[in-house]
Design goal:
By secondary structure, this protein is α/β, with parallel strands linked by helices. Helix content is about 45%, strand content about 15%. The protein binds pyridoxal-5'-phosphate. Keywords: Decarboxylase, Lyase, Pyridoxal phosphate.
């Protein structure tokens, strides 16, 4: 057993074993640092992803008969890191975080004490951290911390599922026994994340009962359409159970008007006597902007520029209303820059949890003892990681102001990017509001965005422009090691002149997430696009002249 014990940290905290562990950490940190290159997206050289890449892994895989030395374990792990995308200034594709140092240390503590967040007796650190961040963030968004509740769970997707489960159990407390009623309906914007789609599938409500509401030009939910569709459901004897209000759509950062949604819900409740409609704020993308809820834009202590201030002020107006929602989410692993998975589900009223809590008789192993007073029998997980520790550490290290600086910089860089892109390239249109994301679309000749938006182009032409952007995405995608832009095949829907079917719009995405993406870098981003666009247009013209 002596040899086996060497695979574990010490029992008595002796220096020798600590130094050994530290030396492994040092090797890993040093080797990964050696692979970093600020001019590239990847750590070291990307492996060649031949067609049989994963098949070869499958064939080669075998548990070694004897354990290999730790040095070799480390070598093998570092091989996996080779060619890994690394979120630095060249990454402008999606909401992928570069975990901040405090969050890494929080994660390390989580692993070292390895608590089980299921029960405070088994995981006191995570329990206390979870309760503390729940209170901190409740106060921030305007929930009453003495009646709110919160727990970390499996992502923004998991939060949508958890909130739907609360809504079902609150409406039909017997559904846990008898199954889900057949006449429940959910509503979300046509631009919402697919989280609700998966959740209605899994909850047994069915996708047919998920009603998609039209989006406005600013990518927020159209409230007239919502009202009409909800009334129609009620008229047909259905139950409007749940509305998903997206606070920052994944591709375009549209923010739904939660105050308006709440007003419609309450009107319907009054006039039709329907059961209170559950509203979940899907703030996975935008929730961090609640950090400006109490910012004083008049005295502007962090001296934000006027154009940045204007955007942040409009967010303050919208995000202050998030307190009207029955629940919301903080996805720290998006704009909060922490490791996967660090998502906090915040619930306005902890009473809701009683509908989904396990009966004491069902939990013979944990909870409900004389010792321990925090048992999360209401979560879908049994054992839970203590990811609240990483969130807690980040909140301490950044403070309100640190996060405000970080979040304001996303806006600042996007403003500069838009200005330069439209100045330097004539055949481009920026297709969303100023936000941490810029979506844009190129045209073979001149911009047709206004015509597309207003339904003046025929189907064929819109499809051609989509194709043009799709091909260009391939071109710059192949060069993603220099700058990695994102793209989407459904930035929004538009109407065509010769059809009543709505068509999706393809667009490129600029999503600055790294703290190293500053306005000084904007030249490089635009230069990269310009250069490749010129090459692409030349190639394309040559192709057409050959065909022609
Ligand atoms: C990313 C995202 C989700 C899913 O969150 P995960 O943490 O990836 O599970 C849900 N909704 C919106 C709006 C998102 O942007």
């Amino acid at each position: 057993m002596k040899e086996i014990q060497k695979l574990f940290p010490s029992m008595d905290g002796n220096e020798l074993q600590r130094e050994e562990l530290l030396s492994y950490f040092k090797t890993i940190l040093t080797k990964i640092d050696e692979l970093k290159d600020p001019n590239k997206l990847t750590l070291g050289i990307m492996p060649e992803y031949t067609e049989d890449y994963y098949n070869r892994i499958i064939e080669k895989a075998d548990v070694p008969k004897k354990g290999v030395p730790m040095e070799e374990v480390i070598q093998e792990l570092l091989k996996l890191a080779e060619g890994h995308r690394y979120v630095n200034r060249n990454y402008v594709a999606n909401a992928a975080p570069l975990p901040n140092i405090a969050s890494m240390i929080g994660n390390l503590v989580m692993v070292l004490v390895n608590g089980n967040n299921l029960w405070d007796v088994e995981g006191p650190a995570a329990a206390a951290a979870e309760i503390e961040i729940t209170s901190m963030l409740s106060k921030l968004i305007g929930y009453d911390e003495s009646i709110s509740a919160g727990y970390t769970t499996w992502g923004g997707q998991g939060v949508v599922f958890n909130s739907l489960r609360l809504a079902i159990a609150r409406y039909a407390p017997s559904s846990n026994e008898n199954g889900v009623p057949q006449n429940l309906y959910c509503f979300c914007s046509e631009l919402s994340h697919y989280s609700l789609y998966k959740s209605v599938e899994a909850a047994g409500i069915g996708v047919k009962n998920m009603i998609r509401v039209k989006a406005n030009a600013d990518h927020s939910m159209n409230l007239d359409d919502l009202k009409e569709k909800m009334a129609l459901v009620i008229g047909n004897g259905g139950v409007p159970l749940y509305v998903l209000a997206t606070m920052g759509t994944t591709d375009t950062f549209g923010v739904d008007d939660i105050e308006g949604i709440k007003r419609i819900a309450e009107d319907l409740e009054r006039t039709h006597g329907v059961f209170p409609i559950y509203i979940h704020a899907d703030s996975a993308m935008g929730g961090m902007y609640t950090f400006f809820n109490h910012y004083d834009f008049e005295s502007n202590p962090l001296r934000f520029e006027d154009n940045v201030k204007k955007v942040l002020r409009s967010y303050q107006h919208k995000f202050k209303q998030i307190k009207l929602a029955d629940s919301m989410v903080f996805d720290f692993h998006k704009l909060g820059q922490t490791p996967y998975i660090t998502s906090l589900f915040l619930i306005k009223n902890r009473e809701y949890l009683k509908y989904v809590d396990l009966d004491a008789a069902e939990t013979p192993y944990v909870g409900n003892r004389g010792y321990g007073s925090y048992h999360t029998g209401f979560t879908l997980e049994c054992s839970r990681m203590g990811s609240a520790l990483a969130i807690y550490a980040s909140l301490l290290a950044f403070g309100m102001e640190g996060y405000q600086e970080l979040l304001a910089n996303y806006i600042r860089v996007n403003i500069a990017f838009r200005e330069m892109l439209t100045r330097e390239v004539s055949n481009v249109a920026v297709t969303n509001e100023i936000s941490p994301i810029t979506t844009f679309r190129f045209y073979p000749e001149k911009t047709e965005w206004d015509n597309e938006l207003n339904g003046h182009l025929p189907v064929e032409e819109i499809m051609e422009i989509n194709q043009f952007n799709d091909e260009f995405a391939e071109v710059i995608g192949a060069e993603r090691d220099t700058v990695f832009f994102g793209n989407t095949k459904k930035q929004r829907l538009v109407e065509a002149a010769d059809s009543n079917k709505q068509l999706p719009v393809y667009a490129h995405k600029f999503f600055t997430i790294s703290p190293y993406s500053t306005i000084e870098e904007v030249d490089r981003y635009v230069g990269f696009l310009k250069e490749h666009l010129e090459i692409f247009l030349k190639m394309r013209n040559r192709k057409y002249s050959i065909i022609g």
